[in-house]
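Support case: 1-O-phosphono-alpha-D-mannopyranose complex. Customer-provided input:
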Amino acid sequence: WRGLIQEDSMQRIFMFDIDGTLTPARQPMTEEMTELLTSFCARNRVFLVTGSDMRKVNEQVPQEVKSLVEGVFTCSGNAYTIGDDIVYEHSFVAPEGLVGLLEDWLEHSCCPVKTGGHLEYRTGMLNYSTVGRNCSQGEREDYEAWDNENGERKILREKILHMWPSLDCAIGGQISIDIYPKGLDKSQAYNRIKGENPDHAIIFCGDKLMPGGNDYPFFRAMGANQTKCRPIDMAIPVVDWRGTKRFLINCDKKP
Ligand code: M1P
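Agent response - structure generated as follows:
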């Protein structure tokens, strides 16, 4: 009985990554997901947590979904908004030499296509892409395949971590890396919402939960906070928005 009572009274908060989890990377949410998520948000407490900035969120997440979520963490947790109100925004000044390293890397990279828009200064972080943000969808997919074979982003990440121990660096999407001060990552989103809701179970869906991925710090923060007592927080790995769709449908099924 005790278990059942705890189960019934346990409140859940759902937190979702966006690119690769709710939408294809840098693509708008499909109509199917929009419909499902709108209905889910109307019945559950939902927050979004992305490496991207708000401009990209607005391009990808329909207003009907945005109006139903409780809050949106952007720029890897370095900015937090509720509705139209900015709750906080962090700043980031790239340490000496970092931009120079990225420029040299760009010049020497064997990546076959470079399109411009390689550095993006965002709130609290810097985003770097060798193929560049001006690439077409085809060039984006080609870069991802090339990077999977050549490991460019993993190697660049290791180099940055080695040269600047005060920085962290993560692979979030298909073509770029996110760079920010150590600890100022998506764990900020977990810590904030868990801090405000210690009695709630947090359930987080992400496609980059593995070490080096930009959802990993969120997962680590959950682990650091976890005791063997309820509520147990859960991280749900997905490979794409279809996996998240299956998760949402399963959530609604009665045991
Ligand atoms: O939100 C995940 C990532 O989405 C984009 O990744 P990419 O352009 O590489 O596919 C970027 O906005 C990136 O910063 C972000 O982490």
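The first helix runs from residue 2 to 9.

Case will auto-close in a few days if no follow-up is received.
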